[in-house]
Amino acid sequence: MARPQRVYEAWKGNNKFLFGGRLIFGPDAKSLILSVSLIVVPVLVFCAFVARHLRHHFPAYNAGYAIPAVALIFMIYVLVLLLITSAQDPGIVPRAAHPPEEEFSYGNALSGGTPGRLQFPRVKEVMVNGMLVKVKYCDTCMIYRPPRCSHCSICNNCVERFDHHCPWVGQCIGQRNYRYFFMFVSSSTLLCIYVFAMSALYIKFLMDEGYPTVWKAFKHSPASLALLIYCFVALWFVGGLTGFHLYLISTNQTTYENFRYRSDSRPNIYNQGCLNNFLEVFCSKTKPSKHKFRACAQEEVRPPTVSFGREVEDEPVGGPRSKVEDDLEIGSDLLKISQRRNYEDVDVEMGGRRSNEMEGIASAKLVTGSESQIPAIGSDVRVRHSSWDRRSGNWDMSSNVLTRSASDVIERSVFATETAHPSQAETHQ
Predict the structure, then answer these.
(1) Which of 81, 184, 263, 271 is the most buried (most CB within 10 A)?
(2) With contact defined as beta carbons under 8 Å apart, do 63 and 51 qualify?
(3) pTM for the whole thing?
(4) Which residue has the higher pLDDT, 57 or 229?
(5) Cβ atoms within 10 A of the Cβ of 56, count?
(6) Rounded distance between C-alpha atoms, residue 75 and residue 127, angstroms
């Protein structure tokens, strides 16, 4: 018996899963290798070429050993935050199996839509904190996105409280991992400051011990020079990012909202005050994931079939009158059309009932005693057009073809009449 398929195996997003669906990453998870290298390599260089020389400058209680230990512990802490940020569900909104049926509507030619085409309102209004907020319909996930939710084009998922997609962590930053992302960025900033300060302190000690100039001290310890340059450049990125997100948290904004609505003068309805905004991010309980990636995947329920055409009612048995009347109307229309001027070549295909069925219907009508009407062909007539008249902008049929079609209709009707009433035919002769 085949093993049932898991949710992560049938996942429609672009995410990557490890350890049987226990860890979820974005499609660019390989960038984590670069991010880890940018953290681990400088710290190892610091411990090997700088921190070990600083041990002897703090002989009391062997305090110098704390310098490399703090750097290693800080590094492990930052890596754990990076893993938590990038390996968990950021707040993905479940997809719907089919569009919301309560929002079904059909196009109207008067309003500029395609007649009979299924349509949805693109925007809905919901009440948030006493104000109306517009939410958009997502064609991919087939849901109306909750407030502050956006669809990530990289991961191909709708994420609650979407902040941005960070390529350095290889994951979307959303409601469930935003606090860990900020802690990762701020901790990286502190680690850069620590390594920069200890490297500068070692250069100071070298200048006091026999290297009177900065240049001679750098020549003696090129690793310190490299670390100072690296940390200075990194501080502009992670330090600037930390300051920017401190501003966003204090005003209860996301990166997406800040860049998109920066020029708008609309009020921020989510701002609860600086203190409450920080409490909401760092002290609120993390919502559980809406997905159980290791659970057995359920079969999708097919959406309800929607008919876009007019339904044709079945005619009751023994009632061919409506068909015969339709036949007469079509026959008269064919005669009128055959009198028009010639147009470009058009293929005409007379579909529907076959000739023997039509003759049977005509005989049934004549047997009932109706002799004043001439039965014509069946009501189902399909015309296939192979060319477009560019001059008139309409579909038309060739008059020669229509004349032959009308003549065939009349000949069949006369033949059916003579067959049903041979005595009347002889009298007319």
Answers:
(1) 184
(2) no
(3) 0.67
(4) 229
(5) 9
(6) 44
pLDDT tens digits along 413-424: 555 555 555 544
Q: How many CB atoms lie within 10 A of CB 112?
A: 7
Q: Which residues contact 92 (CB under 8 A, 6 or more apart)?
A: 13, 155, 157, 158, 159, 160, 174, 289, 290, 291
Tokens of 7: 């949710």
Backbone angles phi, psi at 106, to 5 degrees: -120, 145
Report the C-alpha gap between 139 and 98 in whole angstroms: 10
Q: Which residues contact 79 (CB under 8 A, 6 or more apart)?
A: 36, 39, 40
Read off the amino acid at residue 207: M
Confidence (pLDDT) at 383: 37
Active site residues: 166
CA end-to-end span of the chain, whole Å?
A: 82
Q: Do 361 and 323 touch, CB atoms closer than 8 A? A: yes
Q: Is-contact 161 91, C-beta < 8 A?
A: yes
Rounded Cα distance, 122 and 135, in Å: 9
Asked if residues 399 and 337 have their Cβ atoms less than 8 Å apart, the reply is yes
- Distance of alpha carbon 400 from alpha carbon 398, whole angstroms: 6
Return d(Cα 377, Cα 380) in angstroms, integer.
9
Burial class (CB in 10 A: 0-12, 13-18, 19+), 373: middle
DSSP tag of 379 = S
Q: Residue 270: which of 163, 390, 191, 398 has the closest Cα? A: 163
Decide: 251 and 69 in contact? Cβ < 8 Å.
no
CA angle, corner 194, sides to 191 and 198, nearest 5? 145
Q: Which residues of 299-312 are buried (b: 16+ CB within 10 A; e: fewer)?
A: eeeeeeeeeeeeee
| Residue ranges with strand state E in 167-205 | 171-173
CA distance 270 to 257: 11
Helix (H, G, I), strand (E, B) or coil at 406: helix
Per-residue model confidence as pLDDT tens digits over 342-363? 443 434 334 444 444 444 444 4
- C-alpha 351/C-alpha 42 separation (Å) is 80
Instruction: Answer yes or no: are the C-beta atoms of 176 and 90 closer than 8 Å.
Output: yes
Among the residues of 295-396, which ranges form H helices? Answer: 321-338, 355-367
How many Å is the Cα radius of gyration of the chain?
40
- If DSSP codes are grouped into helix, strand and coil, which group holds residue 100? coil
